[in-house]
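Page 37, continued from 36.
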C-alpha cells in the first residue's frame, strides 16, 4: 500500500491510508500549547477539499476559531466539549453554502481554462446546473450541502492524521445561533459540524465497531445477517 508522509513533528513518519484510518481517535483532551500555523491549516483544508461533491459545487465553508476572543463566543454555544473548545489548537466550524452555485462559473471556467474539460462542456453544464440548483427547496439544498460537507470533514480528519495531528468531530452545539454569533448570514450558510484539531495530551480511547457482515443487505432486505447467536451472546453486557 502506498505510504503517505506525516508532516507534523509528532508521529512524523510515513503512514499508510489504512494506518491513518485505524489510528484516528476522537480526542477530547488536547495539548493547549500546540499551535498550528495558518499556512499549515490552509494546506490541510486545501487537501481535504479534494473531497467529492455534487456536480463539483464544493459547498463547504470554514469558520476557524483560533483566538481567545473567538473561543469565548463559541463556548456558550457548546452543549458539551468545553475542554476541547479551550485547548484545541483550532476549531473548524464547517458550514454549507446554500448558494454555492454562485461559484459555479468560476469552478467550471477554471476547469475549461486548465484543459480539464472542454469549454463547450463547461458551458453546457453551467446552463443545466445553476438553474436546477436555484430551484431546489431550502430543505433539499440543505441535504445536498450536508452530505458534501460531511465528506470533506471526514477527509479533513484523515489529512490531519497524516500531518501528525488529532481531531474530534463535534455535533453538539447550538446550530440556531452559531452563524449569527460570528456575523455569518444564517439564511445562506448552514452549520454542519465542528472539527477540533491539535495534538492529544491524552490519547483517545479505542472503540468497538460492528463487523460489516452484520450490516449488509446483499441484494435483498431479507439477506441482512444479524450475527450468530454466539456473536450476539458475546456482545451482551453482564
Amino acid at each position: 500500500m502506498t505510504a503517505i508522509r506525516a508532516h507534523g513533528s509528532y508521529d512524523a513518519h510515513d503512514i499508510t491510508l489504512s494506518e491513518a484510518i485505524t489510528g484516528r481517535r476522537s480526542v477530547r483532551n488536547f495539548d493547549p500549547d500546540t499551535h498550528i500555523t495558518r499556512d499549515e491549516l490552509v494546506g490541510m483544508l486545501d487537501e481535504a477539499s479534494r473531497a467529492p461533491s455534487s456536480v463539483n459545487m464544493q459547498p463547504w465553508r470554514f469558520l476557524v476559531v483560533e483566538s481567545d476572543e473567538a473561543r469565548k463566543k463559541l463556548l456558550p454555544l457548546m452543549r458539551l466539549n468545553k475542554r476541547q473548545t479551550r485547548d484545541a489548537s483550532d476549531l473548524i466550524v464547517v458550514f454549507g453554502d446554500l448558494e454555492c452555485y454562485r461559484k459555479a462559473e468560476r469552478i467550471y471556467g477554471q476547469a475549461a481554462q486548465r484543459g480539464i474539460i472542454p469549454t463547450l462542456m463547461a458551458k453546457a453544464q453551467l446552463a443545466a446546473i445553476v438553474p436546477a440548483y436555484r430551484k431546489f427547496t431550502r430543505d433539499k439544498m440543505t441535504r445536498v450541502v450536508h452530505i458534501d460537507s460531511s465528506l470533506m470533514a471526514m477527509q479533513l480528519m484523515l489529512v490531519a492524521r497524516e500531518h501528525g495531528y488529532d481531531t474530534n468531530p463535534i455535533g453538539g452545539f447550538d446550530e440556531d445561533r452559531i452563524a449569527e454569533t460570528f456575523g455569518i448570514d444564517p439564511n445562506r450558510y448552514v452549520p454542519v459540524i465542528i472539527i477540533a484539531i491539535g495534538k492529544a495530551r491524552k490519547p483517545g480511547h479505542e472503540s468497538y465497531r460492528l463487523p460489516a457482515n452484520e450490516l449488509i443487505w446483499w441484494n435483498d432486505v431479507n439477506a441482512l445477517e444479524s450475527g450468530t447467536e454466539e456473536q450476539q451472546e458475546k456482545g451482551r453486557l453482564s
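Confidence is low (pLDDT under 50) at residues 1-13. Flag for discussion at group meeting. The CA atoms of residues 108 and 122 lie 5 Å apart.
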